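About this split. The held-out portion is used to measure sequence recovery: a designer receives only the structure tokens and must propose an amino acid at every position. Recovery is the fraction of positions where the proposal matches the reference. Here is one held-out target exactly as it appears in the evaluation file.
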């Protein structure tokens, strides 16, 4: 029986872990898949050594309060690896945690696969030297990443982006609007404020402020909010202000992001995986993000790219307006959203560019290809 240990520390990683686990068990039904994850990994047939709840934070200042939990989780996973002796370890994104854990797995003689590898082409390129010391093989999801890892001497395979298969709505545009009491014809703005509590605290209030300005400029506009799982209700309280203005109450939908996106005309989204998901559905978007001043100041020194939105990085040009830190103002976000709602030629041009991004993500079957690589590593002990 092949034993696979996975580690992911946030909702997007758990989504990929679940899809990978599904494919591993299709290829080898008797395999044992366990590790750090969440509901997706569990529902796919995996076994949780530890839940990532409380670990999904970004930034130095934001991470400090969670350090005791990080350390306890790390030790629990290493103990499990020593006891269970997995045939392969799969790190899924989450580099600050998975680098330390992956190095420990390699020290135990366990092959290490890095799936959804760090964005070394965007910032902290020196991490490639660190990865070379413990990674058996990197599985990358963007085609331009392959040469970077190969040039660094790290065995690599381009498997494609798993969201090509996973970003599938249950309902179509009209059916979703009808099911949630939305006007079939009204301009619709989707709000994707992030999946981590610390993101919502600093991003959602100003997205609501932007929405207030949108209501003044486009009175018929309606809003639908994509809510990530396991977030407390209190984080969404700023949305109540829209109803107080006399606007239609925003529709809040949990764990149905793809349905939210296909129902929308424009998307206001936190930077991250959601921008790629939005691009797959060819929805014009405004990208925002905000970190603590300390985290931003420290991180900015290592950034090597002009854009921060993943969709713009893949496109290699600015196709989605993006606003970071002080530039993220309600006026700026509302202005771009209004343009998308009123300028048809701008929308058509943007959608063509988003279609080109989707074509760069590879064809269907990314999770299956990744599973084949993982099982191959498990059958070949030691570094490849």
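Reference sequence for scoring:
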């Amino acid at each position: 029986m092949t034993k696979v240990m996975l580690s992911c520390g946030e909702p997007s990683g758990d989504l990929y872990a679940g899809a990978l686990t599904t494919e591993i068990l299709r290829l080898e039904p008797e395999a044992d898949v366990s590790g750090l994850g969440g509901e997706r990994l569990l529902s796919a047939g995996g076994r949780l050594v530890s839940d990532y709840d409380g670990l999904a934070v970004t930034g130095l200042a934001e991470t400090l309060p969670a350090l005791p939990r990080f350390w306890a989780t790390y030790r629990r996973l290493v103990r499990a690896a020593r006891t269970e002796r997995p045939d392969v370890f799969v790190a899924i994104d989450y580099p600050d945690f998975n680098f330390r854990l992956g190095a420990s797995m390699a020290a135990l003689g366990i092959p290490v696969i890095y799936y959804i590898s760090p964005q070394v082409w965007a910032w902290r390129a020196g991490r490639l030297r660190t990865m070379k010391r413990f990674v058996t093989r990197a599985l990358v999801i963007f085609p331009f990443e392959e040469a970077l890892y190969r040039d660094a001497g790290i065995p690599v395979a381009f498997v494609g982006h798993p969201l090509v298969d996973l970003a599938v709505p249950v309902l179509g545009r009209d059916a979703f609007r009808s099911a949630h009491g939305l006007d079939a014809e009204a301009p619709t703005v989707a709000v994707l404020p992030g999946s981590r509590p610390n993101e919502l605290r600093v991003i959602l209030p100003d997205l609501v402020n932007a929405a207030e300005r949108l209501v003044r400029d486009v009175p018929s506009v309606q809003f639908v909010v994509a809510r990530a799982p396991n977030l407390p209700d209190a984080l969404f309280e700023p949305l109540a202000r829209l109803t107080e203005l006399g606007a239609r109450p925003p529709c809040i939908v949990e764990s149905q992001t793809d349905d939210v996106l296909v129902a929308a005309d424009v998307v206001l989204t936190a930077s991250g995986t959601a921008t790629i998901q939005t691009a797959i559905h060819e929805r014009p978007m405004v990208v925002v993000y905000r970190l603590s001043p300390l985290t931003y100041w420290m991180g900015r020194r290592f950034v090597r790219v002009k854009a921060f939105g993943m969709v713009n990085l893949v496109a290699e040009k600015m196709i989605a307006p993006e606003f970071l830190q002080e530039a993220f103002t309600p006026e700026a976000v509302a202005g771009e959203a209004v343009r998308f709602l009123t300028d048809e030629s701008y929308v058509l041009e943007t959608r063509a560019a988003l279609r080109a991004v989707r074509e760069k993500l590879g064809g269907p079957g990314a999770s299956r290809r990744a599973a084949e690589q993982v099982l191959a590593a498990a059958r070949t002990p030691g570094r490849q």
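Annotator remark: The first helix runs from residue 11 to 27.
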